[in-house]
């Protein structure tokens, strides 16, 4: 069929539209009477308690924002094929930690375990490059813990996971409608957004109560506890007080330089453990090749080596807010000792509190012309001691308007109002 269209476009003077439509009808009839057999899709009868399906779906097209900023994320979506009971967990990548956390969240919210769990050929669960083992070691351990059978779809057969694929569309549509009724796609934080999803799922599942009740009696019991979803890796802290985990870079306390620590990767955090003690709990970076350097980990040594600041690979990470960057830019114009002065301010933030120093810098920057003396650590320290911080920018004083001015306006003749204005 496409070749016929191409022929007409290539030789427009030789084939009329009527000839093209005639050819298309003849080919269509030939395919129906003499052509190859087409693939047949067999409607399935769903049995209570037998099967749960799950998959990841991107939520970027829904347009959710957090604090006015775009919030790219996924949902791990689980559905029981008989009752259509569903659950969803916010996640940021198709990692095993996301799969494990999402599946376990769904099973514990449900209160039981189906006989089988089916996924697509996601690499976190399925060995796509080797036929030696059907599933990955970690996924097999998860299935054993919940005493459920793992199933995977055939390559290129998304319809075999059709229930959850269909529910993706309907859940997104329900979310968009709920956001429309809410009047805003923006949330003050991730926690309120998660609560919004939890309440919406509760409403959707309420209409499936009868079929779910029939299904619950066939579900297996939950184990005594959840299985830990954390991925544990041993890494060594390098001379820059950095560790490299899952192809991302994190800073840790300089006291750990040269030591081997255990990094525990969760859905949203990376915990750093040493000698049986949790040393850090860091937000997990999304993607690959990212870095998170906390100035508090290295500032004690950086103030002793201010020359290293100028060309430090992760220098941009050492500006906690725009006001710290503005202070450094101002210092560069005022003194050749800008790096040293700025690092002293950063050291003050580590000891006195970042928010307090940020407010002090805002006060100084709003005073107009900035001198070298104003940005000395001693001056900022004195400002903190006096508690002479400017009110927050959200605090606006509006002068009270006297209503008598409106009486004067109304009592003025119409012919003279234009002159008075």
Description:
With 421 residues, the protein is α/β, with parallel strands linked by helices. It folds into four domains: 2-33; 51-216, Ribonuclease H-like superfamily/Ribonuclease H (Nucleotidyltransferase, domain 5), CATH 3.30.420.10; 231-292, no CATH class; 298-386, no CATH class. Helices cover 40% and strands 17% of the residues. Strands 5-4-1-6-7 form a five-stranded mixed beta sheet.
What integer value in Å does the Rg equal? 32 Å
Write down the overall geometry.
extended
Helix content: 40-55%
In CATH, the topology of the largest domain is named Nucleotidyltransferase, domain 5
Order of helices and strands: HHEEEEEHEHEHEHHEEEEEEEHHHHHHH
The major sheet is characterized as: 5 strands, mixed
| Distance between the first and last residues' Cα | 74 Å
Task: Assign the CATH architecture of the largest domain.
Answer: 2-Layer Sandwich
CATH superfamily of the largest domain: Ribonuclease H-like superfamily/Ribonuclease H
Number of strands: 15
Please give the order of strands in the largest beta sheet.
5-4-1-6-7
Name the poorly predicted regions: none
Tally of individual helices: 14
Mean pLDDT: 84
**The number of domains:** 4
Based on secondary structure, the structural category is: alpha/beta
Strand content: 15-25%
CATH class of the largest domain: Alpha Beta
